[in-house]
Amino acid sequence: MIKGRFLVFLFVASVWPPGWSQDTALGAFLSDPAMTHASMSLCIRDAVSGMPVLDYGSQKRMNPASVLKLITSAAALELLGADYTFTTGVGYTGKFNRKSGILKGDIVIRGGGDPALGSGRLADHYGDFMSRWADALSGMGIRKIKGRVITDDSYYDYLPVPAKWLWEDIGNYYGAGAFGLSVFDNTYEIHLRTTSVSATPIITGIFPEECRRLLDNRLVAEGNTDKGYVFAAPYIGNGWLAGSVPEDRDDFVLKASIPDPPQLVAEITDKKLREKGIRIAGTPTTTRELVVFKGGELTPVASVVSPTLSEIVEILNHESVNLYAEHLLKELGKVFMDTGTTAAGIEVVRQFLTGSGVITDGMFIEDGSGLSPLNAISSEEMANLLIHMRTRGKYFREFYSSFPEAGQKGTIAKYFQDPVFNSNLRAKSGSMTRVRSYAGYFTTHSGKEMTFCVMVNNFTGPSHRIVTLIESLLKQIILNS
């Protein structure tokens, strides 16, 4: 702590004009009651030269929350390229008799790791892709399938959720796992009608309906804040609802993670084919369920290509989509280590960081999104990566564009609204219980380009107090540097 405070006063003196000293925003930050039991790692540097501007505990390893997504997205862009895409293919096995319309084989949907397939965020791109598959198969003249609809989700491993995630998270939409075949952001909706305080909300609908499962409803209606959780695991057909949801709502929506997206795709596609009048002998399933899939050679019929990686990364960082980050991590492992696992992806990311001049000793990475409470990095490491991307990154333009604009878009739309930040600061936020982090770029009034990372862990009181302190600190640097 003594060393940290020495650095504070050293760099404060070099940044602000005479008279600031202990009355600076940093001094106020550190002495605020919310920081009494908190830890902070702060690093602000010139984005071009890398020269330090302000430093406090910059080598401390802290939980970054979603700021970790910047590491994943930087690695993905630099290693895979901004125009990289994912492909989902549809075809059939066996023999098809065009005269009789009988297929002696299976319809196979082969996942290719697309993180955004069917996402409502990209509805214009994907449209009703499963209906198009049904149209293509029907248009071939298929009238009867002696096999069944199978989704091949073997592109990644069958461990969709990182091992170090919390049980509280994985049943909810933000805790959706990454599958070899994901769909609809791996999210389904539970519609509820709530009445008086403490009454049990009534489940009025599930969308998509195919996601209906046995859920023990232990929710209560209380107040006007969503504190409801879904406790469930991947591939499991039951779970329970707990916590509280707002009272007196005709239609309140609780978002949950789809337990088995490949199975869902198989069931919806099967249904659409049957609606076309195609008879199917078997029930829809997945290669995971079959254990050993001996489908033979696949005759392609249709495919769906994702938006470019740069488009996916922009959504990932603007809206902090955990699922997309976990997909990109596994894709890095698949492409560069021939195994689509979280562990392989982390190894590729570490190699990328080392090659970028970032010291990874003492850095703990457990996932690609920052949802694990066991992640730990330092603000110095993050600042070094941001400088590398600014000065040597092949895809800095796409990387920079993925940062939300202060007070305008994404996860910081409601923050940094002071005019001093307008069109001047872009940052990725990170938040979880007792964690608030920000990292990004800004330009001072004197025209200096800066990069920064600030992480605060284990503060007390409301989180908006910490955000206000961070805003004040950055504002003073913009005005006085």
Compact overview of the structure:
With 481 residues, the protein is α/β, with parallel strands linked by helices. The protein has helices at 2-15, 25-31, 69-80, 123-126, 129-139, 167-170, 261-275, 287-290, 309-319, 322-337, 342-355, 379-392, 396-401, 463-480, and strands at residues 39-46, 52-56, 87-92, 95-97, 102-104, 107-110, 144-145, 149-152, 187-193, 202-207, 214-217, 220-221, 227-231, 238-245, 252-257, 279-280, 285-286, 299-305, 425-432, 435-443, 449-457.
Considering the chains and any ligands shown, give keywords for the structure:
Beta-lactamase; 2 domains; 5-stranded antiparallel sheet; 481 residues; D-tyrosyl-trna(Tyr) Deacylase, Chain: A; disordered N terminus; 5-stranded mixed sheet; alpha/beta
Name the CATH superfamily classification of the largest domain.
Answer: DD-peptidase/beta-lactamase superfamily
Biggest sheet features: 5 strands, antiparallel
Q: Specify the CATH architecture of the largest domain.
A: 3-Layer(aba) Sandwich
Query: What is the first-to-last residue Cα distance?
Result: 26 Å
- Helix share, percent: 25-40%
What's the total number of strands? Answer: 21
Number of domains: 2
